[in-house]
Amino acid sequence: LHHWTRLSFSDGDPWRVRPPQRFEGLTPLDRTRGADVTWRIVERPAGPGYICVGDAAAVLDPASSHGVLKALMSGMMAGHVIAEHIGGGATSIAAIFAFTRWLTGHFNTDVTALTGLYRSLPHPPAWVLDDVAPRVNRARDADVTQVASEFPTPPTIEPGA
Predict the structure, then answer these.
(1) Domain residue spans of the chain
(2) Pairwise CA distance, residues 135 & 41, whole Å
(3) Dihedral angle at the C-alpha atoms of 92, 93, 98, 99, nearest 10 degrees?
């Protein structure tokens, strides 16, 4: 059994669904598949009674190879804000706001870094030239502002505090 991963920058890429040359003589067992890896973050990553972590909270470029790390980090932060709330150190509103602000901040930082990386390629993909980072950042910043405006200003909760 063999598999491969290919990063195609355009829909017109002739190699997009073709296997690498070394696999050409093999008989496929099934059709070629792909995954939607559009950069995205859930609109409300935390709320009364729930916190989204890992890919349920945010998805970024799998080429960055940080998915497992980001999942662990978001799980740890979720555990931290839950412990703060259960221990009486933060209201549920403060915990929701702290997690939302933390996740959104990390997501925006990563989008900006990855966009810069792709823009530095000799032939960057067209979508990265459309100012994806400012668009994503504005959407996320607006969401955090909306969440913040709905609740009183909570105390800051920092990991390890």
Answers:
(1) 37-150
(2) 13
(3) 60
